[in-house]
Amino acid sequence: MRTITTRILPCILPIALAASIMPHCYAGATVEQSPAEQTTPSVSKAIGAIKSLTGTTIALTPDSGPDVNIVVQPAAQIVRIEPGAKSLSDAAPITLQDLQVGDRIRVTGKLSDDGHTLLAGKIIAIKHADLEARHQLELQDWQKRGVDGLATAVDPAAGTVTITVRTKPVVVHISNATVVRRYPPDSVKFDDARTSTLQAIHPGDQIRARGTRSADGSELAADEIVSGAFRNIAGTINSVDASSSIISVHDLLAKKNLDFKITADSQLRKLPPEMAQRIAMRFKGRAGGNASGSSAAAPNAASAEHQRPSGEAAGSGAPGSNPRGAPDLQQMLSHVPTITLSDLHKGDAVVLVSTEGNAGGGTAITLLSGVEPILQAAPGASSSSILSPWSLSAPAGDAGGP
Fold first, then answer.
1. What is the pTM of this model?
2. What's the fold here for domain 231-305+329-390?
3. Residue 292, class by beta-carbon neighbours within 10 Å (0-12 exposed, 13-18 middle, 19+ buried)?
4. Per residue in 97-135, pLDDT tens?
5. How far apart are CA 48 and CA 28, in angstroms?
6. Domain 19-126: which CATH class?
């Protein structure tokens, strides 16, 4: 008998949302299963979002693979849980009519005789509205208590990783309760990060963490930390192949050509000329730190300007700022004009972040054009000194993560 299954990694869900019905997506989160589910091999399962409902039939879009056809049986048990629930102790009974398109459900049951339909005996649901509300809280928490930067030192024995946050070192403390995750080599989504360990983090990796900061801001007790090894490239476009969605970029520092795949998840943006000029002026003002290629000063120079669109003053409460004055660069990036592959041409100067990929290139995560003035102002600076604050598509509503 064919079994309907769905791979639940990577999870296309906001962090920590619906963890209870997707136990492998979030460390430590599980849902209690009935003895029948644990011992009956014929039970099939499907997890995903409701695409449509017609009578007792549900079209389910799983996290991977084709849609699943589900027929709810007359005696089926349907319960609703809150996002983040780790058991069914507080589950509330609901009816089939309470389910709506967009709700996340975990279905268990048996296959029909033809093997094409899952006959649902039990459905655990998380309402779409609850997910959205929880996601907004997650976004706010990442913006208020999140930090990001490059790892400079890792001490697994002490449970710490030191990162550079706007030129200053911050020691991130990791405990047994800290959720530690890491991007896979081909990831372009924050939500694709998988359960990992501190030992997997290396100097030079890009880190996003949230937790409680010390009074002086030099330490952070992390609730969650996400790491990844990404490539930062500054160069000029050699060619654009629209048919395969691949651009060839000449890396100015490595002096070699690299190919990057552009996907639907790639963020393509273009800096307005006035913003690029202002950032270039800041780089020139810090030329002493950048001439050698040091990235110590550049993130601060760029981030101070990038946190707000043109014409919005610091401290104005504009998108990209927060009450502490620390820039949220993902929010800033959401206000830079988007472009398409057709807007890129041979000879354009770009800086980009890509997946780790292979020696010949990778998949573009963020590509920024309109950067000619910046590269001219800091020809010796590494691209990581320009883009590192943007490298993780961490919690920002338009980037697929917090």
1. 0.58
2. OB fold (Dihydrolipoamide Acetyltransferase, E2P) (2.40.50)
3. exposed
4. 999 999 999 999 999 888 889 999 999 999 999 999 988
5. 20
6. mainly beta
